[in-house]
Design goal:
Layout: H1 5-11, H2 18-36, H3 68-77, E1 81-82, E2 85-86
Antiparallel strand pairs: 1-2
Length: about 90
C-alpha cells in the first residue's frame, strides 16, 4: 500500500517532523489493514438503534435565579470594573 504521508499531513493540517513521517510511513499501512478487518465483522444481529435513547427533550427551561443585588456584589468583588461591568483581558491582539 503506497500512502503519500506529505499529502495526508497537508490534508489533515498536521505539521510532522521527518521522524514522525518515517514512523507513520511504516505504521500506517498496518493500521489501515487492521481497520479494514472491521468490515469483516458480522453486525447483522445488532440492532442499529441499540444505543439510542427515548429521551425527547433533555434541556431544561431557562429560569432566572440571580438578582440585581447578587450581580452587583459579584461585579464589586471583581478586580477590574468599567461602567458597572467586569473588565477582562482581551482575547485578540490589537
Amino acid at each position: 500500500m503506497d500512502i503519500d504521508i506529505n499529502r495526508l499531513a497537508t490534508l489533515a493540517k498536521l505539521q510532522l517532523t521527518d521522524e514522525e513521517k518515517a514512523m507513520l510511513e511504516s505504521q500506517l499501512p498496518s493500521i489501515i489493514e487492521y481497520i479494514g478487518k472491521l468490515a469483516e465483522v458480522d453486525t447483522s444481529s445488532v440492532d442499529p438503534k441499540a444505543y439510542l435513547t427515548n429521551a425527547v427533550n433533555v434541556l431544561r427551561e431557562d429560569v432566572v435565579t440571580s438578582t440585581v443585588d447578587e450581580r452587583d456584589a459579584v461585579v464589586a468583588a471583581f478586580p477590574k470594573q468599567v461602567g458597572g461591568a467586569m473588565e477582562v483581558p482581551g482575547v485578540f491582539a490589537s
